[in-house]
Amino acid sequence: MNDYYYQLATVVYDQFGIDPFEKIMYKNYYLTVQDYLITVSIDDEIKNILALLKMLPDKNEAQKFINSAITYNIQSVLLGENGNSKYRLKEINKIF
Question: According to the lineage, what is the superkingdom (predicted)?
Fold first, then answer.
């Protein structure tokens, strides 16, 4: 884990109280909140996501944002539209 991950984790887990092991589903696939934050900490070099999360007013809004972002990431990987799909595909789990 890198420093940026811990900054994200502080906001998401501590400030908003979101469970890192919560599974966000899309079709038969899921990604945990923790896996998403790890990916963001690697890909988001200018910390846009951290800035956005800090602006959200409450847990409900943060949860909506994270759910939407994870769903979008899974869709992108499944459609092959993501430049980092090989990395992210390792993190996406399939439920049968």
Answer: Bacteria
Per the CB < 8 A criterion, the answer to whether 26 and 19 are in contact is no
CB 16: neighbour CB atoms within 10 A? 16
The Cα–Cα gap between 23 and 92 comes to 10
Which two three-digit tokens encode residue 16? Answer: 């908003």
Query: Are the C-beta atoms of residues 85 and 77 closer than 8 Å to each other?
Result: yes
18-30: pLDDT as tens digits: 999 999 999 888 9
How far is the C-alpha of 6 from the C-alpha of 8, rounded, in Å?
Answer: 5
Domain limits of the chain?
Answer: 3-94
